[in-house]
Task: structure prediction
Amino acid sequence: MASETENYLMHFARQGSAVWIAHLDLMRTFERAALRAALPVVWSEGYNPRPELEFALPIGVGIEARMDPMRIGLETKTDDLDLRLNAVLPAGLSIVRAAPLQSGPKSLMSRVYAAEYEICLNGIDCLLPVLSEADPLVVMKHGKRGSREIDLRPGIRSHRSSGDRCLTVLVDAGSKRNIRPDLLLTALSERAGGGIDWRDAVIVRTAVCLD
Result:
């Protein structure tokens, strides 16, 4: 990245029909918005240059976001970054705030260590005792390299009831260990005796924590 790049840390919200935009399409949506807003974006090098945009943590389809961080690289300082983007972003996406990024060369993704989720679901009260246990919380994780059992317990940092049928949980996130809310709900439901489907939940990522 060129030393003259002006990096900005933005926090965006996602709600409504925009929650069904997959991560790669979300990236393209913000790229197009930056171009439509005529921002002085810095372009990546190579055969397929793209605007310098970096999301701190991918977000799953169907999950709302309130303050998800992302970085944009600009050629010059821009004071009205949030206003210009909000004028062209589609319904359900908005920039909550934007400010110059005061950090070194460390990437935004490498700074992520935790994420907070608010999960609302009928019957979630029966899962709270399981969260307070000390025993391993094992679930089967399926991926491109096959399936394997993982213990989610070490990655649960804190939890609390946040109103009627809602739970707020802070979990590890990032490249070292990333606890997905769907896996957490699946593991909790299995331990509690089943009967709860995470697909019935309303999940909101309320914060992504950076070091």
